[in-house]
């Protein structure tokens, strides 16, 4: 219709009409493109919001997972100290025996680092990482992932060193009564006086305790990184973090 009017105006050499019709066409195309761009931008923002919410939830759940692991690790650290202190003194009281037994059987045990990362992997595999408009936030996600892999590898190395030391420790006692509940009671058979006078045994446990402390430090640093990521995602979502 518009093209016909322009052609008629050209035949009549009605230049003002030609100019007006061309302006109408250009303006219509421009407004159509702007409307399309606006719709795409709105769609991207909605999609970004959905991904930010999922990333935030991943961070929160990752923190909860690792906090549960750290609570168990902290209990192991406490009972390990009971074992080392009793051996150093050469005295084991009845009140400390339950902690001593639990400390000895789990000596050096610790949890591995975990991170829920499915949303980031989806963004990467679908090529939609750019939907996260905040470049600093994308950098923070990349840093958190790199930090996790680095510290997880460190912890794995520490775990292997502890395992080698544990081989000699495990030959010095026998479990006789236990359950498999978290922090459940355990009773061991051992010769305490023999253990307390064996300096090599004490030194082996001290080495294990040192490696376990490094693993706990890794856990703490991993949690700090996750909490920083959670807070940044919460800020991007406009939510207040308790």
Kindly list the characteristics that best describe this protein.
single chain; 242 residues; mainly alpha; elongated
Structure description:
By secondary structure, the protein is mainly alpha-helical. It has one domain (46-237). The chain has 7 helices and 2 strands. The protein has a two-stranded antiparallel ribbon with strand order 1-2. Helix 1 runs antiparallel to helix 2 and helix 2 crosses helix 3 (94-105). The two termini are 62 Å apart.
* Integer-rounded radius of gyration: 32 Å
- Main sheet characteristics: 2 strands, antiparallel
Query: What is the overall shape?
Result: elongated
Number of helices: 7
Taken as a percent bin, the fraction of beta residues is under 5%
What strand order characterises the main sheet?
1-2
Give the gist of this structure.
The chain is mainly alpha-helical. Helix content is 76%, strand content 4%. A two-stranded antiparallel ribbon has the order 1-2.
Topology:
Elements: H1 2-12, H2 15-89, H3 94-105, H4 118-125, H5 135-169, E1 174-178, E2 186-189, H6 192-196, H7 199-237
Antiparallel strand pairs: 1-2
Helix pairs in contact: 1-2, 2-3, 2-4, 2-7, 5-7
């Amino acid at each position: 219709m518009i093209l016909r009017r322009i052609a008629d105006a050209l035949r009549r050499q009605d230049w003002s009409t030609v100019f007006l019709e061309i302006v109408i066409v250009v303006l219509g195309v421009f407004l159509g493109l702007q409307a399309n761009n606006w719709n795409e931008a709105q769609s991207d923002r909605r999609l970004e919001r959905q991904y930010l919410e999922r990333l935030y939830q991943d961070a929160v759940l990752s923190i909860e997972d690792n906090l549960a692991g750290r609570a168990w690790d902290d209990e192991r650290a406490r009972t390990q100290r009971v074992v080392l202190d009793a051996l150093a003194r050469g005295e084991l009281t009845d009140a400390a025996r339950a902690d001593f037994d639990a400390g000895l059987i789990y000596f050096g045990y610790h949890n591995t680092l975990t991170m829920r990362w499915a949303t980031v992997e989806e963004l990467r595999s679908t090529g939609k990482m750019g939907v996260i408009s905040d470049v600093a936030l994308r950098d923070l996600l990349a840093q958190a992932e790199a930090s996790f892999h680095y510290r997880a590898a460190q912890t794995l190395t520490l775990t292997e060193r502890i395992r080698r030391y544990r081989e000699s420790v495990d030959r010095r006692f026998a479990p006789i009564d236990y359950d498999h509940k978290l922090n459940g009671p355990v009773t061991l058979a051992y010769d305490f006086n023999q253990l307390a006078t064996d300096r090599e045994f004490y030194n082996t446990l001290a080495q294990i305790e040192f490696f376990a402390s490094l693993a706990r430090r890794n856990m703490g640093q991993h949690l700090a990184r996750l909490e920083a990521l959670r807070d940044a995602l919460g800020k991007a979502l406009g939510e207040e973090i308790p």
